[in-house]
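Forgive a beginner's question, but would it be possible to get any protein sequence you like and the tokens describing how it folds?
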Amino acid sequence: MITAALFLCFLLLFIAGTPVGVALGLAGCLAIFMADLGLMAAPTNAYTGIAKYPLLAVPMFVLVGAIFDRSGVALRLVNFTSAIVGRRAGSLAAVTVIVSMFLGGISGSGPANAAAVGGAMIGALSRAGYPRAFSASVIGAAAATDILIPPSIALIIYSVLVPQASVPALFAAGMIPGILAGIALIVPVLYVSKKNGFGLAEKDLPRPPFWKSFREAIWGLLAPVLILGGMRAGWFTPTEAAVMAVLYGLFVGFVIYRSLTLRDVYEMFVEAAEISGVILIVVALAAIFGWAGSTLGVFDHAANAIVATGGNQYVILTLLIIMLIVIGMFLDGVSTFLILLPLLMPIANKFGWDPVWFGVLLTLKIAIGQFTPPMAVNLMVSCRIAGVPMESTLRWVFPMIASMFVVLILMVIFPEIALWLPRVLGYL
């Protein structure tokens, strides 16, 4: 009865339009009250849910994404990538994917990536002859690589919820799948562009001079080297790396490019505080739900029931993939992890799945969901910037979904795609 009340209360509140965090918190409080566990456990677990050192990186990486957007790093990266790729049909759309992947090494938020790249690329893509609906599809899909390529806010949250998977191991494990996902997206982008004659006007656009664009973009190119290289060298932890990235971004914006003002800093701090506040409130309220479910044994019983259906691990994994991609259409990665990990980890433990591989696999599933209509969070941002309805992107976005799904299948068949790099670096 209490188990039913926990899930039913959450589902009813969620369907009624209650914010995810509030629905989780209220459902957890109801279960705690019905089980007579003491309602004072709710505020205690809300506090312990966010009183974790790795979570300090979340507001810093949100802030650094805003800094590199406003300082003009994204636009300089576009020029440099265009100088490498050249000017031909489809090349500017491919540049969009590459720049999104690179920005994934600076900020760990998919919607933030979509906003930064969309602001820099929508106009250029339109002038080159790309339909705005296609441009929005490319940007929304490419931004999904952001939660795979480190640093990733979703992977940080996963490490907090699954202590046996460290942040450095997850960051290393996400690198190769993230790059493969980006390459997989470029294939349908070039094919569709060539087939439909998109970007033919690119041939008339001047190719940016290589060395000039390289000099302008060098400071942005060094950012992932600073973040990831510093962590690998042991100079700082992932949390401290986020602070270093903020300082580096402010230095580039004020001293090198001289494109930031104190007014910009104030607005960026407000924006980062609002986004981070929402994330951490959801984390805190989800901790109540998680504690109630684990204390009552709800998640273990549910996991045992799923395993007891008699399906082998690949059947169960297929069902989880379908479920998570559908859920990813409606929820961001952080919310999905907070809601489902208490249920999913007992299943992973039953089958002996590596927690690092499982975390990256879950993140890739969520990444696909982030640009899968009808409620794709990345696509919502890119469509808003492009000024097009999401329905207009359907014919363009599904080939990109299929290409990312191929990477997902490869990861299931060959787990070393995710585990090879952390093994080499000594994190496993």
